[in-house]
UniProtKB/TrEMBL annotation:
This is Reverse transcriptase zinc-binding domain-containing protein. The chain crosses the membrane at residues 224-247, 253-269. InterPro entries: RVT-Znf (IPR026960). It comes from the Eukaryota. Keywords: Membrane, Transmembrane, Transmembrane helix.
Length: 270
């Protein structure tokens, strides 16, 4: 292994003038002025975990943090990723919140020659906010669900998501509300795609019924033990009861044969 002393001569670094990236990097990072006195002491490796840190020991965590800086945090992250969520619903809502749904305004901004009109109402240009909250079709779905409870959700999707997590001090209420919000967004997006690919269009009350069915199925699933577990538990219990009954009857019959009464205390003294 070469020492610093061997890498320089007459106060000049012995580095090729080639254009290789490594050589260019070395020329950039090495100090232009050599130390006044070089000696033959053992060289020591020092590591800068970031451009602003002091040279010292290598730290994998600090290097990782520098290479992968923490992104912006959003207040809608927690309301989206909760335990009882329906994964495909959560995924579509997450795509919407990250503005990753391929709505027509986005496709046109990429130069694609597609119509601009909303697939749900055919009256206004399609964008994420229009499609999922502002459209007269979507608005009817939203208000249809929350009007019955006397609730009026905010206007924008971001505000609705945050609002759904702070609706009540009871966690269960908020969970149901979050499941509903995700189901609405998912079904609106699915119906929009259905109109695009198969020209099938559903009136708002039909879509609302479908959302209600999804919610009922979800609640049923959460409240009932799966049938196969119930059956297996019942089978084991039945087996034990039958075995116990056989033992008791055989025991009493034996006692009867040896001259005792057929009715006797089960754990009597012989
Ligand atoms: Zn519309």
């Amino acid at each position: 292994m070469a020492t610093v002393n061997q890498a320089c001569t007459n106060s000049i670094w012995l580095i090729s003038r080639g254009r290789h990236p490594i050589l260019r990097l070395l020329r950039d990072v090495l100090p232009p002025n050599l130390p006044a006195s070089l000696n033959s002491l053992q060289d020591e490796f020092l590591w800068k975990n970031s451009p602003s840190s002091e040279a010292g020991d290598f730290s994998s965590s600090k290097t990782w943090d520098f290479l992968h800086p923490v992104g912006q945090s959003f207040n809608w992250t927690k309301p989206i990723w909760f335990k009882e969520r329906i994964p495909r619903h959560t995924f579509i809502l997450w795509m919407a919140m990250r503005d990753r749904l391929f709505t027509r305004d986005k496709l046109r901004s990429w130069g694609l020659n597609v119509p601009s009109s909303c697939l749900l109402c055919d009256a206004y240009p399609e964008s994420k906010s229009h499609l999922l909250t502002d459209c007269i079709y979507s608005r009817e779905i939203w208000t249809g669900f929350f009007r019955r409870s006397g609730l009026s959700p905010p206007v924008s999707l971001e505000e609705i998501v945050v609002w759904s997590d702070s609706l009540s001090p009871q966690r269960k209420v908020n969970t149901n509300c979050k499941i509903l919000v995700q189901a609405i967004v998912y079904c609106l997006w699915r119906d929009r795609n259905s109109r695009l690919h198969s020209s099938n269009s559903k009136p708002p009350h039909v879509l609302s019924k479908e959302i209600q069915t999804i919610l009922r199925a979800k609640h049923r699933h959460q409240g009932v033990i799966p049938l196969h577990l119930v059956l297996s538990f019942q089978f084991v219990i039945s087996l034990w009861l039958v075995a116990a009954a056989i033992v008791v009857v055989a025991y009493r019959f034996f006692w009867f044969l040896v001259g005792g009464s057929f009715v006797f205390p089960l754990f009597g003294v012989f």
